[in-house]
Structure formats: C-alpha cells, structure tokens
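I hope you will forgive my troubling you with a question about protein structure. The matter concerns a single protein, recorded as an amino acid sequence and a row of backbone structure tokens. Please examine both parts with care and let me know of anything in them that strikes you as inconsistent. Thank you for your consideration; the sequence and its tokens are set out here:
***
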Amino acid sequence: MKSKNQPSLINLKLMVLSFFFLLVLYVILRSNYSSFQPIKRSSYPSFLSICNKIPPSLATSLVHYATTNVTPQQDLYEVSRTLRVLEKKSPCNFLVFGLGFDSLLWASLNHRGRTVFLEDDKNWMKMVKKQMPSLEIYHVSYETDIKQADELLYKGKSEECKVVGDPRSSKCPLAIKNFPRIVYETEWDVIMVDAPVGSYNRGPGRMNTIYTVGLLAKNKEDGETDVFVHDIERKVEDTFSRAFLCDAYITEEIGRLRHFNIPSHRTIASSRTPFCP
C-alpha cells in the first residue's frame, strides 16, 4: 500500500515535464541573452588606448555605445577604420551624411576639429539635437528617388559629369547644388556617406550624394580626402562609389564600409588627372 507522502506516478511525470520545460526555457533565454552581450572592452582596437584627443576611457565608452546599440549604424570593425584615419588627421574638417548613434562618437574623436552633420529627416534631426545639443547639424533635402538609379548612372557617363569643379557650377544632373554654403566652401579632410535612406527600394538613394562628394574631394585646394561609403553591399552604394569616387582610389573594404583616399585634382602634380584614373 502506498504511503500518503509518496508522490503518485502522475505527479512524478508532471515534475519531470516541468523540469524539462524549465531547462529548455533556460537554454533559449541564455542563447538569446548571449547574442546581445556587449563587446568586451579587451576586444576594442588597441589604438584607442593611445588616443591623445580625448581620454581613452571616454573614447572606449563612445565606441561601445555606437556599436552595441539595438540598431547600430556600423559595427566595431567598420568604425575602427574611420577612427584610425581620425587618429591621424584630427583635429580636422569632417563631413558626415546622416545622424545616428555614432554621431557623438565622430564629433568627440575629432576633438577641437569641426564635424558637420547633414540630415534630411526633420523629426529625427530634432530628436538627436535635443539629446546632443553640441552637434553641428544642418537640414538638407534630396530631390531624387532610388528608382532613378539606372537612369542617373547612365547620365553620369556624359562628358559634362567628368568635369571637376564646384558642384554649384556643374552642368552634371547628379551634382547637388542646394546644400548649405558651408558644404561647398570648406576644405574637407574626411567625409562619411551613410545617408540618405536608400534601402528596400525606397527613399532618395545616395546616387547624387556620392557624385557630389567626389567633386568636393577632387576640387579640394590640395591634399587628399578620406571618403567612407557605408552599405556597399547594396547596388547603388557599390556601383556609384566605384564609378564616381573611382576604383583606383579604394584603399580598403571592411564589412559594409569602403574607404577611398582621393587626391585633389587641382594640384600641379595631378592637373591632368582624368576624372577616374
């Protein structure tokens, strides 16, 4: 005869099933949680430890915030490439297309330099400006649609689009002429193209932005401009950057980021340099 304190067979089965369910739930939660673990500080690029622009701890924290956000613009390895250039060039003139969780990082790493952001989304711009009032942000507008990409690429092959000069006086239909004056009248040392929107076959696309950036870099008084184009896995960013920033000026590709080092076409040494060598 069974003791009253002895669990029945049904109760034992329920206990086993409950234990099994909790075990499965623990495994699932553990795997999901581990995928969102912040990057270990020891895995950050070593050059941050010798950054002489801002305290290393602050630089590390900014990188951590920019690359571990729920929707990061760039990952750690992509960001590290731009940081290496800023480490050498800052304080400098740095032009960034687009606002994001990495904006404060760019402005801070270019300590004592000038970092300018261009953004077309007024609501997003207002929110970022409220959170980071120290950033220098200008509103811009784009008149293109990404569906025009093939047509604009064809027009970009015309002779008038191969003339290097101030975009405002260009006869090429890809040249953007309605940016704030500061964009055209500043000698930019570093330019980041991470906007406007151009995914899922919607938005203005970056066709004209990439072309105009190419003119700004080549029309610089002298020296070289480091240009970064993000999202190169997409057709527009890949095709237009190769065509108008030039294959010959590509220095490196990391993940979805492509780095160009573009020399001025106004210097004596390169006065006869074609639009793309």
Summary: The radius of gyration is 25 Å. The mean pLDDT is 83. The longest strand covers residues 224-230.
